[in-house]
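anyone seen this seq b4? input:
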Amino acid sequence: MPYAILITVHILAAITFIGVVFFEVIFLESIRKRVPAESMQLLQEGITTKARKIMPFVMAFLFLSGLAMAHHHFPHFLGMISSSFGVLLFIKIVLAFSVLGHFITAMYFSATGKMSRSRFKFIHLSVFCHLIAIVFLAKNMFYISW
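predicted toks r here
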C-alpha cells in the first residue's frame, strides 16, 4: 500500500481516537455535575455503546497502518536508539502500545460488566495523558535533538 495512504489512514484514525477520548475526558466530565444523574447515565451509556461498536475498528486501522509504516521503515529501526529521533519514536511506540493495553482492558471491563465509574475515569484520564504525550512526540520528534 502506498505510504501516503498509510499515513493518511493513520492520522485519520488517530484524530478519531484522540477526539473521542478528548470529548469524554474534557467535555463529558465537565458537564457531569450540571446534568441530572439519570440523564448523565443515559448519555454515557449511549456514547459507550456507540464507542464499543466503532472504536475497535478505529484502533485496528490505527495500529495496522502504524505497523505498516514501521514495516516500510524497518531497515532504519535496527539503529533506532542511536539517534534522538529514534529514541523519541521508540517512546511514542511504547506509549501507543500502552494505550492499546488500556483499550483492551476497558473493553474487557465493559464486556464483563466490571467497568466501574472509578475505573472508567482512571482509564480515560490515563489514556488522555498518554495521548497528549504521543501528540507532543509526533509533532516535535523531528525538532528535538540532543
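The helical segments are 3-31, 37-72, 74-77, 84-112, 117-140. Residues 70 and 77 are 8 Å apart (CA to CA). kinda curious what u guys think
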